[in-house]
Amino acid sequence: MSTGMADPAGAKPTLRDVARAAGVHLATASRALSGSKTRPVNPQTAALVRRAAADLGYVPDQVARSLRTHRTPAIGVLIPDMSNPVMPPLVRGAEQVLAQHGFTTLFADTDNDPAAETQRLRMLLSWRVAGLILATARRDQPLAAELTQSGVPVVMMSRKLDATPVPSATVDESVGIAEAIDHLTGLGHRRIAYLGVPLWTSAGHERHVAFTDLMRGRGLPPPPHHVVVCDGYSERDAEVALRALLAAPDRPTAVLTGNDMMALGCYAAIRAAGLRCPEDISVVGYNDMPLTDRVEPPLTTVRVPYYDVGRQAAGLLVDAILDGGSANRSIRLTPSLVVRNSTAPARP
Question: Of 327, 314, 246, 313, which Cα lies nearest the Cα of 281?
Fold first, then answer.
């Protein structure tokens, strides 16, 4: 195998040089270095190609790629609110995969504003990005048709669209809700309330539907006022909602929330009512954001693998860009319940 960095004239090694050194076809070398999932290269050949690239000092020529595709070597990533604790692991997972394939990442924060989302999407398209990852879209994304017709590969990250088939990396919310319900019913709870996040996101809608369906399927249909769709995602939203439930004669013995911030709001409502968690009412959160194991009591919550969701979303997009794959392929990851001290057996 050749180990020269470049020829005497100083020319940079090309992908063709890598293929020649590894003794493989040019297309095989391309797929091996791109990590193609739709047309994978066998591990031995891929290792041979990577070693040849390293020996030659080969670096993908993003300018040449841009000239071929008429796209910049950049990926637009739209996020709804960077202050949301679930966003950093999503973004980190996606960026690491994109960087491995030589892409620059352009982030835009919409602050959950649909008008800002539209403006930033069109701005990124005008910059001729090679692809888009959206963690912002509402279920009825008004630009869905425009995006699919733009010719730019698009992948949803932690969200899905209702009507338009767009590749996505998401979580099976029904699994997380089922584990939470089964944990609480296993502790003897029968009056379980749900304080959910807004329904305009796919995750919020799926968690809400899963809770009502699963409770009914277990013979525990909750009264309508025990299933609350909050206006927002904050501690205050949940605190106000739970205060009303705790003042009712049939107050719940347990509450499942749409995210961990709302679970902390429930702690405040429970204290304000002169009650204790978990002795008087158990609380389960959702997401397992940082420091939920440090609050008092440490929060039982559904852990969502957001870092892996980000990596999978970026992988789908890279496949679509480099190999024409992922046309209608989506990935569903599985959450898991983390049991801590905010849940306890129901009182007789």
Answer: 246
